Amino acid sequence: MSSLLVIGGGGHGRVVADAAIATGAWENLAFLDDQPTEATRALGLEILRGFQDLERVGRRFTGVALGVGDNAIRFKLLERCLEAGLRVVSIIHPSAVVSSATTIGTGSVVFAQAAINIGSVLGKACIVNTAATIDHDCLLGDAVHVSPGAHLAGAVKIGSRSWIGIGACVRQCIEIGSDAIVGAGGVVVADVADGATVFGVPAKVRI
After folding, report:
1. Residue 202: what are its φ and ψ, rounded to 5°?
2. Contact call for residues 124 and 105 (beta carbons, < 8 A)
3. Where are the alpha helices (DSSP H) in the chain?
4. Runs of H (alpha helix) within 42-186
5. Under DSSP, is residue 96 helix (H, G, I), strand (E, B) or coil?
6. Each residue of 3-16: pLDDT tens digit?
7. Portion of the chain with pLDDT greater than 90, in percent
8. Fewer CB atoms inside 10 Å of the end CB: C or N, the chain?
9. Contact present, 119 and 47 (Cβ < 8 Å)
């Protein structure tokens, strides 16, 4: 019997679980969460408590999925899971369109109505959120988050742990460094340095 533990029971974790349910691949699902709340269930699924018990609890499931939105925390959780020998899976919503000639890293999620085109490579623990698009030959590092409705043109490169805000657009062949943030609705037409936060049209570092 296939069972899935979704690490993180907040809003993002519930979207991950909902996408996993839509695939039809899992018979039993539960959440593991570390936030104080009186809730014991979400989506009708049990919420287990305590990230300190991740390794022990995870061994009770045939797969684990990452349901934490924070890029750095999500990647650290991935490393813990892999070190413990847990089977970390990627979740792709059945309404997403993903070319067979792409690479999706371990622990990544691709949500409803997203599209990833030929030749693109995603690192580990990436998020391609609702209706986001990644065109051909893009290269995303580990733990990158492409927010809902954001669009990457062809051959864009994004460094690890960077965040592309909701509705942002990135011109073809742009390079965005690691730990960078593109603000909501930003239009990126020039390269973005490591650690920079840019926003606006065109997107710039603004004081």
Report:
1. -75, 160
2. yes
3. 11-23, 54-58, 71-83
4. 54-58, 71-83
5. coil
6. 999 999 999 999 99
7. 88
8. C
9. no
